[in-house]
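A reminder from the course coordinator: this example appears on the midterm review sheet, so study it carefully.

Given structure:
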């Protein structure tokens, strides 16, 4: 979300989920919303079917939302900046921009205007394969709508240019003035239920809570005074850099909490090799997942229904959770485990319950000051909520952006890190499916869910299947420069010719054995969505 932070402030949904129902046009990209965010997809589909909203879908796969699309742009994976800059080119050249909004609320527009001149519909078609007339139709729909909302997810961010792609979407919202009003905005859909809350609470390696910077002397002093300690001014490492450090020997010990890098990180053979070099690997989780099986120490933690606290969801709404069952065996709340560890290392943390921690958050996090347990007893509140009397903020950037004026950012199309060739002629893209969840630590323990999707599969276009002599259900060997897995063929039009899709939930054929470690240089997010593979009948 670093790109959105650059343009607007913090990276979060600018509008609420309910507010999406006020949109008259949606631009959905990098999000298989019906499968990955099914509740949010119902809001979008209801606005289309019941209120006449238009849908611009940009996705290389023929996902379910394509049935609802006014126009579907099927881009070549890894070409998002090209088509976004193409839409900007059309909007500017046809005079569909919001000149008043640009003049009053933004800066650096002229630099972007100059940069996108070369992204003509014809040039964009040569990069993305999107027909130029479809791109023009999409640009006009988005710009002319009274309230257009951008909805995106990890299909946009999991590229080496992911941060720039998000900046490009911010450019699109600002050039048309589709920001800060009901039914508008730039809305990233978070991948898990408390990703937003974790980021808000300083789990990003360079941040304290509310996105204050570790390297900023003033920000750091605020927390040094609050906690009575001296804090390191050097930002921490992102996950790819941690794995790299473990491999090089500069990281000696690692504690993994609620994460499963032996399924979720790219090039798993490299990850496994790196983790084996550690002097100490500690895993804190509710099940013995693939990473925990490598651990020297496993700390059993309580599951969501076994603890009290709060979650902050994808729309910035802070909500209470309450213990409904006792945790089994020796499992403890995460905060209890962390408190005991800290105190054994010389700290003196005195929390008696989760509410004590929330009160500390209220005292030290400006955007959460007014979000007390008492106020969210029944209904959650959207941050920022700076005082106990504040009603919360369902829509961001109504009067001004967090940074003052919204910053237009010049972005350029850069090809993916790995290109297809005669040896590896197919593009592999990865993602999630409706009936499994993330690394399947929980969902593949559910008999009902497993019965719906029992085995790993690869979606392959019928034309490619014919060329390879492959039929529905055949066993396929899929190989990249990093590894090989065996999967079942799912022959359909879901993928374009030359592209295959494999979900990443299945440990017995983990697709991340194939993916590449190339990362976005700013956000350090791996390029999960594009790598080169070869396919053969097993």
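Designed residues:
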């Amino acid at each position: 979300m670093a790109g959105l932070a650059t343009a607007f402030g913090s990276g979060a949904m600018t509008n609420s989920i309910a507010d999406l129902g006020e949109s008259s046009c949606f631009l959905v990209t990098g999000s298989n919303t019906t499968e990955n965010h099914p509740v949010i997809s119902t809001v979008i589909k209801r606005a289309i079917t019941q209120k006449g909203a238009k849908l611009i879908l940009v996705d290389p796969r023929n996902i379910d939302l394509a049935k609802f699309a006014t126009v579907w742009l099927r881009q070549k994976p890894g070409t998002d900046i090209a088509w976004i800059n193409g839409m900007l080119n059309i909007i500017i050249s046809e005079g569909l921009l919001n000149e008043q909004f640009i003049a009053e609320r933004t800066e650096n527009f002229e630099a972007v205007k100059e940069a996108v001149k070369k992204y003509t519909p014809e040039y964009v078609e040569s990069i993305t394969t999107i027909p130029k007339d479809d791109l023009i139709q999409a640009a006009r729909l988005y710009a002319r709508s009274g309230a257009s909302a951008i909805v995106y997810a990890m299909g946009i961010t999991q590229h080496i240019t992911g941060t720039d792609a998000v900046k490009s979407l911010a450019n699109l919202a600002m050039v048309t003035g589709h920001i800060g009003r009901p039914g508008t905005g730039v809305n990233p859909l978070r991948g898990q239920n408390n990703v937003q809350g974790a980021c808000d609470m300083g789990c990003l390696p360079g941040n304290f809570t509310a996105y204050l910077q570790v390297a900023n002397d003033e920000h750091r002093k605020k927390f040094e005074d609050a906690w009575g300690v001296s804090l390191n001014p050097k930002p921490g490492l992102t996950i790819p850099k941690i794995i790299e450090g473990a491999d090089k020997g500069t990281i000696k010990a690692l504690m993994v909490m609620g994460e499963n890098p032996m399924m979720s990180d790219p090039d798993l053979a490299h990850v496994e090799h790196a983790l084996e070099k550690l002097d100490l690997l500690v895993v804190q989780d509710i099940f013995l997942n693939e990473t925990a099986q490598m651990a020297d120490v496993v700390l059993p933690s309580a599951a969501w229904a076994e603890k009290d606290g709060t979650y902050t969801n994808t729309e910035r709404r802070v909500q209470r959770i309450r213990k409904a069952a006792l945790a089994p065996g020796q499992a403890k709340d995460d905060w209890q485990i962390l408190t005991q560890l800290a105190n054994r290392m010389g700290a003196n943390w005195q929390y008696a319950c989760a509410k004590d921690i929330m009160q500390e958050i209220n005292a030290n996090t400006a955007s959460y000051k007014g979000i007390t347990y008492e106020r969210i007893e029944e209904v959650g509140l959207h941050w920022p909520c700076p005082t106990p009397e504040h009603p919360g903020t369902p829509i961001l950037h109504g009067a001004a952006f967090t940074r003052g004026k919204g910053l237009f950012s010049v972005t350029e199309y850069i090809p993916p890190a790995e290109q297809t060739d005669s040896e590896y002629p197919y593009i592999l893209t990865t993602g999630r499916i409706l009936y499994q969840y993330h690394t399947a630590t929980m969902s593949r323990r559910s008999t009902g869910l497993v019965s719906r999707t029992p085995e790993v599969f690869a979606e392959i276009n019928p034309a490619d299947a014919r060329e390879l002599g492959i039929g529905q259900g055949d066993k396929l060997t899929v190989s990249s420069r990093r590894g090989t897995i065996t999967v079942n063929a799912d022959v359909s039009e879901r993928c374009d010719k030359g592209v295959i899709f494999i979900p990443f939930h299945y440990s017995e054929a983990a697709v991340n054995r194939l993916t590449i470690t190339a990362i976005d240089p700013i956000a350090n997010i791996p390029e999960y969505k594009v790598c080169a593979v070869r396919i053969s009948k097993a």
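The first helix runs from residue 2 to 8. Residues 139 and 417 are 28 Å apart (CA to CA).
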